[in-house]
Amino acid sequence: MLAPRHDMDMDMDMGGMNMSDTNTSSTHEAVMNSVFQNSTTTSLYSDAWTPKTAAAYAGTIIFLIILGITFRLLLAGKTLAEERWLDAEMKRRYVVVQGKIPVAEQVSTDSLSKKMTLTENGVEEDVMVVQKKKSHLRPWRMSVDPLRAVLDTCIAGVSYLLMLAVMTMNVGYFMAVLAGTFVGSLLVGRFYSAEH
């Protein structure tokens, strides 16, 4: 991002219009740092949230740690909810419809199924091993999908807020986000996959 220097007058003549800016102090310019800094007066999310005291800066750090923990709690909550929804879907009762071939007959006539013998503790059983042909799309459900969308939106919102905090290039904010991630993962990391 290129920004004009404040110590220069900018004179431009555009079709008879004189565009000179001699009072640059009235314009607000956002300058993004490209190196880490340790200022305790770095704004977070808006100019209104600019710590003016050490206590306000410490409060901002604590907020970011809690936000990082919240992010990990949301990830764990979504994973647990997905497992619960899948379990509920698998426990649904299915009804045999007249004219359709029952699943047992479909398996026995399927070209991808193979007869095998399963042995466990000396007991043998004849089993059918069936290969999955295609992926199964789960149906849209009013009881699940709106809640999933709300969870995904909350996760995205919190993760973007954490990203913006890191983008201030403030060392304290960066360390607070890492601390929140560490504590959150320590508390609930076993409940979700590491893909996020």
Structural write-up:
Helix 1 runs antiparallel to helix 3 and helix 3 packs antiparallel against helix 4. The chain is about 45% helix and about 10% strand. Strand 3 and strand 4 form a beta hairpin. The chain starts with 9 loop residues before the first strand and ends in an 8-residue tail after the last helix. The radius of gyration is 30 Å and the shape is elongated. The chain is of the alpha+beta class. The strands form two sheets. Strands 1-2 form a two-stranded antiparallel ribbon. The longest helix is centred in the middle third of the chain and has 37 residues. The N terminus is likely disordered. It is built from four helices and four strands, in the order E-E-H-H-E-E-H-H.
Blueprint of the fold:
Blueprint: E1 10-14, E2 17-21, H1 54-90, H2 103-109, E3 114-120, E4 123-129, H3 145-167, H4 171-188
Antiparallel strand pairs: 1-2, 3-4
Helix pairs in contact: 1-3, 1-4, 3-4
Strand numbers in spatial order across the main sheet:
1-2
How are helices and strands ordered from N to C? Answer: EEHHEEHH
Largest sheet: 2 strands, antiparallel
Proportion of helical residues:
40-55%
What is the CA–CA distance across the termini?
30 Å
The number of helical elements comes to: 4
Rounded mean pLDDT is 78
- The total of beta strands comes to 4
Parts with pLDDT < 50 across at least 5 consecutive residues? 1-15, 19-29
- Taking all Cα atoms into account, the compactness measure Rg is 30 Å
- Overall morphology: elongated
In percent terms, what proportion of residues is strand? 5-15%
Structural class label: alpha+beta
